[in-house]
Specification:
Distance between the termini: 13 Å
Order of helices and strands: EHHHEEEEEHHHHEE
Number of helices: 7
Strand order of the largest sheet: 1-5-4
Structural class: alpha+beta
Mean pLDDT: 90
Helix content: 25-40%
Number of strands: 8
Radius of gyration: 18 Å
Strand content: 15-25%
Low-confidence stretches: 83-90
Length: about 210
């Protein structure tokens, strides 16, 4: 395990005034994206996901540059190298081999940073729906969830693991979603259950040869 995971989970306590100041601190392209969301929740997630990435870069690598990034065919982000900050203050460059991934849900945002490909998914623990579980899980996984003392958590655990793999590979939703964990047995999964805060997060990375 060689990655850095950052989580911001106080979204509900952010005031409209704090959000307004945070949006104003964004580079123009990200500010425009944040303001394109109609509802406050979307603006929060967009704004603070970016700011969490900036925090991770500064704390881990000492990089104060406001990064730009591009999205792959299925939405996986990667850094645009050679970008400069809005000021003329010299900053450390973003390493070419640096990878990151972002995920957000209503209560929290996750950012993972590493020197190798990574994927992250964070999900709110919500109401368990058997029909969705049957669509996402194979027979063995479904049985485990059904027999769990808390199917809500057991299902979200599987969901984040599969989504983290999808985001690691950058391929989008796999046609064989039911057997995704079996098909990608070359992937390491690290799952954290934050039950009191109401979410589960999983980081996915490839096993080292």
């Amino acid at each position: 395990m060689n990655y850095h995971l950052f989580i911001k989970d106080n979204l509900a306590s952010i005031t409209p005034q704090e959000l307004e100041r945070a949006i104003a601190s964004l580079p123009a392209w990200r500010r425009e994206k944040a303001l394109s969301f109609k509802f406050e929740q979307g603006r929060k997630e967009c704004t603070y996901a970016y700011l969490l990435l900036c925090q991770a870069l500064q704390e881990v690598y000492g990089i104060t540059q406001q990064p730009s990034f591009t999205l792959g065919e299925h939405g996986k982000p990667s850094f645009l190298l050679g970008e400069v900050t809005q000021s003329n203050t010299p900053t450390l460059p973003i390493p070419a081999a640096l990878h990151f991934n972002l995920s957000h849900c209503k209560p929290a945002i996750a950012c993972v940073l590493a020197d190798h490909p990574v994927g992250v998914d964070i999900e709110r623990i919500g109401r368990y729906e058997e029909s969705l579980a049957r669509y996402v899980l194979n027979d063995q996984e479904f049985a485990i969830v059904q027999q769990s003392p808390d199917p809500h958590v057991a299902f979200i655990r599987y969901w984040t693991q599969k989504e983290a793999i999808v985001k690691l590979t950058g391929r989008g939703i796999d046609d064989d979603l039911k057997n995704l964990l079996l098909n990608y047995n070359n992937v390491l999964l690290h799952t954290e259950e934050h039950l009191t805060k109401g979410y589960v997060v999983t980081v996915a990375e490839y096993k080292q040869a």
